[in-house]
């Protein structure tokens, strides 16, 4: 039983790697010969290959003996389909700098893979649905915000923060489904997006917003991330929270050092040392509870 499970996992991994290698081979071939291809051939080697790979994947997915192999062709289709659509629209005279047009193309890719995921319930389809859903979200947000008369400062940062929260909620939902393997990745990206954007709004190491409200909220969110790692049994949340805890203490220590002048730098080093020791202690303790 265990041998069959291990063999199945190896087949899945090898199919993913095979699909990725085929994609890179096609991409390199197209790149090297792009200038020699006319319009029809450019569409054929991008959109045509994507459609062919998608239908081959569908045929394999409906046969239990070849379902694992379908992952490789779904990977090829997922990466090349948006490229093929962009090339086709560009050759047709469409302006890809228009966010509404990009949103429609992203929505088309999202629709293809989301509908496929609903019927076939393969994790790779869910992964590409999340990817295209994120692209559609960014394009739609840009379309709405840039076309509106009112403009809010640092709006792009808040857009990324909302996406991070969505990843965390989606990861929690998928934890009880067949696609639980995506939970760790979603927790990792979600926590990084939320803490990263919060830190950029309140910190001084990157970004120039330095909003005091977000400086306080960042500390709260870091602690919330670390404590959430225990009930969710997520090492991703633990490591991201630990990383931003160190950065946050470094940011606060740097501010204190600037206030105190030259005498503040020894204090900065002491606080950083204590932060590293505290972070190491917290990580070890939480890891034991996660196990």
Describe, in plain words, how this protein is organized in 3D.
The protein is an all-alpha fold and 291 residues long. It has a domain at 1-132. It has ten helices and no strands. It has helices spanning 2-33, 39-61, 67-91, 99-120, 123-147, 155-174, 183-202, 212-232, 235-260, 264-290. Helix 8 (212-232) packs antiparallel against helix 9 and helix 9 (235-260) packs antiparallel against helix 10 (264-290). The radius of gyration is 23 Å and the shape is globular.
The percentage helix is over 70%
Number of strands: 0
| Helix-and-strand structural type | mainly alpha
**Percentage of residues in strands:** under 5%
N-to-C SSE series?
Answer: HHHHHHHHHH
Mean pLDDT equals 82
Q: Which ranges are low-confidence, i.e. pLDDT below 50, for 5 or more consecutive residues?
A: none
How many H/I helices? 10
> What assembly state would you assign to the polypeptide chains in this entry?
single chain
Shape designation: globular
Give the N-terminus to C-terminus distance in angstroms. Answer: 24 Å
| Largest sheet entry | none
CA radius of gyration: 23 Å
Descriptors for this entry?
mainly alpha, 291 residues, globular
